[in-house]
Structures
1.
Amino acid sequence: MSNRQNIAPNDLRAFWMPFTANRQFKSAPRMFVAAKDMHYIASDGRKVLDGTSGLWCVNAGHCRPKIVEAIQTQAAEMDYAPAFQMGHPKAFELANRLVDIAPKGLNHVFYTNSGSESVESAIKIAFAYHRVKGEGSRFRIIGRERAYHGVNIGGISIGGITTVRKMFGPGMAGVDHLPHTHLPAKNAFSRGEPEHGAELAMDLEKLVTLHDASTIAAVFVEPVAGSTGVLIPPKGYLKKLREICTKHGILLVFDEVITGFGRLGTPFAADYFDVIPDMITCAKGLTNGTIPMGAVLVTSEIHDAFMTGPDHLIEFFHGYTYSGNPVAAAAGLATLETYKDEGLLTRGAEMARHWEDALHSLKGLPHVIDVRNLGLVGAVELEPIAGAPSKRAFSAFVKAFERGFLIRTTGDIIAMSPPLIVSKAQIDELIGGLGGILKELE
Ligand code: PXG
């Protein structure tokens, strides 16, 4: 019998959902059908307060008029233009607007369609940059434990998530890892940047001694690790990494897929920490989550190193069919305008203190073993149920959805990152709601 006869239009089996407990979801689906500003509307008509900006991407809030209109207009005017050997004005305009808000020196933009692709592109730029400069022996990339750099082979190789790393084969060759900086014994319940742990950056010197600088192309770090539970870097840590990379001619890449576009109260985390990397990978907030688009921002030094040889030849053999797609570029331009009109790239700084106070009010509630925050990112770590890791936080997530709040969980850590338009009252509502749930958890 044909498959088709078995699948009703509303059957949930065909869609193999990403990063989802498929069987649990399909036994009790949680569906969103509409969204506006700070809220989703669930399929049963309930309003759900968005405590996570979708998946850390809807920084300006949902269905913002300028962005909606720009997408509609562009889709009708020119849906697609070839990305290779042809151009269209909006991709160039967006690159210029991005450079305007990027940290000083990051003057060029390579487009991708996601954070994962931004990471792969940055890895390839790092390899190729050293090669065009005559240092092709720099084939090694240094990542970090507990890092998330997307899902492709390069990203999972330099990433540090064990469940992912054990599942998909040996990965990319020539990778080593720095230790993570999560030190709960010393830093639990830190407000903002923790005091202890900057010395962990010195492990990079050890890796340089082990492998020799001449084999190392780049160090990749998330300035604040998001997916693995909001790990805030210790004071001074990123500055030390920068110093060591500079000393040894190693490129420093900040993966700002989550921290980019105002999450910490500055346009990029590089601004917040006052550390300028050689490349920034971004995505998500670039188009406010509407149309897939990512980018790698690079220094002129990197870009210009490729601009040699006969000028009819392609300088960098890399790119995607949808690099700089017109509808995505239009969405990106309207997103950056919305951020500018409403001061959203720095609004997090104004709200950070209220957010921090609200989050830390959860200290002392049952099962809470740590609270972490920076800008408009926060995490509440719960003591796992013995023998059933992740279960306690997952029940908090399900209960929160039932009560009208969207939160995220990773292991037994609850992560929150509301849209940057959030009000103080909405922060209180979200954190108050979470507090109520924590009191009821097993
Ligand atoms: N780098 C970083 C630092 C990320 O956080 C990616 C790369 C990959 O981006 P794409 O666009 O390929 O998904 C990410 C993505 C979560 C969560 O809830 C985090 C991400 C994605 C989905 C969920 O922690 N980060």
Note: Residues 55-56, 114-116, 119, 148-150, 222, 226-227, 255, 257-258, 283, 408, 410 surround PXG (CB under 6 Å).
2.
Amino acid sequence: MKIGMLTGGGDCPGLNAVIRAIVYKGVLHYQDSIYGIYGGWKGLLDGGRIAPLLLEDVVNILNLGGTILKTSRTNPFKHRNGIATVKKNIEKYELDAVIAVGGEDTLGVADKLYEEGVKIIGVPKTIDNDVSGTDQTFGFDTAVNIATEAIDRLRSTAESHNRVIVVEVMGRHSGWIAVKSGIAGGAHLILVPEFPIDAGDVVSRIVKRHACGEQYSVVVVAEGATLTSESSEAKVVTFDHEKDEFGHIRLGGIAHILSTIIRDKTGYDCRTVTLGHIQRGGTPSAFDRVLSTQYGIHAIDLVHQGDFGKMVALRGTKIVSTPLIEAMKEVKTIDREFYEIAEVFFG
Ligand code: F6P
């Protein structure tokens, strides 16, 4: 078969491991011709790039961060004649099927294209772990490890200087990275979008902790967290007002606001650290390399079974397939039970 493959949306560690697995199994087991579609859905619009992917192109990419296929946040449904062009190019290159590796946006486009008759399989990726239908997306484990290491390091310098350090992590509207790295890194307070905390409550918890003898604190805050207050409505903090083609605004800045509140109310010496794209770059963890490899192998198997309109997913320890529409049902957020584990350590 002739199979096209693309990576869309924000990059994450493990994308190259998926690409490698698909090319290996496709070429060696099924005698497929695999084509790289460059720059996400942009690669299937006019002027896009599609080129063969050979074993020699992927032989050394297992531990490489980023994506050799490049990526973009292009939404073909927002382009004039976008869908007709995508379909025309799939025909022009005689692709029998497309494997789309991405988060809810990329998989959402994949699902709509499936309804339009395109033979398509999805693979769920994102550091945010917010895709429903799967227990975990690849990229998330690496991001949690990176954030955990950062929190460990910040704890020791915060302690030396008797400071409060507020660390902002990514995750968009879900608190997975914050809560997992916060628990693993021994954070003293973790703020997530799912369970907003009153700013006054944050301050009094820190004051209480310091009154009990500790003279430093590390607070982890998810970029999508909000601070409730009696006087104003809770709002996410955004970097600017521009929306991408999927309608997303860039989040960021809550750590600075929170640290200013803490400093003004307590007089404690406060610092802010925003981890940003460090969480997305670089080599994948061993867990993500294995999960990506399992996802890639399962995806190409689904293509050969003709089981289109599906996404590969992790359920417990098994890789399964689930309708692409599952990925779009809702943003997968953390549940109360899990957050309560973190709360035990808030004091
Ligand atoms: O979805 C992954 C993610 O890293 C989010 O956590 C973050 O809000 C966003 O992408 C950042 O996007 P960009 O790379 O466009 O700044």
Note: Residues 140-161 form the longest helix (22 residues).
